[in-house]
Amino acid sequence: MIILETISKNRKFIALVLVALIYVTLKFWFRELDNQQLIFLLAPVNFFVELFYNSSSVFSETIGYFHSELSMTINDTCSGYNFLLLTFVLSSSVVIWYGKRMNLVLTLLFTAVFSYAFTLLTNSIRVLLSIKVQNIADEFMVPRPHHFIHETIGVLVFLSFLILMYLGFNYLLKKKNFLQHEFPS
Questions:
Q1: CB of 125 within 8 A of CB of 48?
Q2: What confidence tens digit (pLDDT) does each residue in 115-136 have?
Q3: Dist CA 37 CA 60 (whole Å)
């Protein structure tokens, strides 16, 4: 029994090291990415901005999606890439730590797909909320840009969603024995 627990803990540690290596690799790779390469994150957010604010945009590889009616740009700096990486690391770590004898490849695949969808949802909410609050601020403050408001909304939305995600995964994995059955290796 002790030998099995040691092997299981060692496998979890190795899996967590692998997640950390994936994070570091993708983080360094981000420095090389431009708007065109981040289109998989930018286009869905732009879609929701166009839908909710009835705004049309023009895409440029150098500036991203420019919305002239909203006086804003959706580009690589607001792609949500860092949030995607944090979501992947947090969700993978929680599933690896609390899951029992799970297939690592399936775990990483599941958490990668989940992280992408969760990032699109969270980042879209962040951008839509930021536009709304900045429109309200235009009436009570000096005209744009309102960098402090924009950054504060980003921090609050991202942190809130990360906490909710962790609590949700933790609840499902620890309390409800979700995914606690054995997968074939």
A1: no
A2: 999 999 999 999 999 988 887 8
A3: 12
